[in-house]
Design brief:
Layout lengths: L2 H13 L2 H13 L5 H19 L4 H8 L3 H10 L11
Length: 90
């Protein structure tokens, strides 16, 4: 696949709603050789990493923003072996 085609597909994908993006990813995942548990762990890990980045590695702000208890976030990070980057100091 050419770079141009990949860019076109990326732009089209980004224009979709989150629900439709999830359907595309679910279809792709269902045709992979991964098991359900692996797919869900990978999604959760990716989502938590992006959220940590968005909230500057501040679990409290993240917990408020996504309405999930801070302790639950901590347990999920430990379970998925996600290491936090140090917070930026101002």
């Amino acid at each position: 696949m050419t770079e141009k085609r990949i860019l076109e597909l990326t732009e089209h994908f980004e224009a979709l709603t989150i629900k439709k993006m999830m359907k595309v990813l679910a279809y792709k995942a269902s045709n992979s050789k991964l098991y359900f548990k692996e797919i869900m762990e990978e999604f959760e890990k990716t989502l938590l990493q992006v959220l940590l980045e968005k909230y500057d590695n501040n679990r409290l702000k993240m917990s408020i923003g996504i309405q999930l208890h801070r302790n639950t976030i901590t347990k999920k990070l430990e379970k998925l072996k996600i290491k936090e980057k140090k917070r930026k100091t101002k």
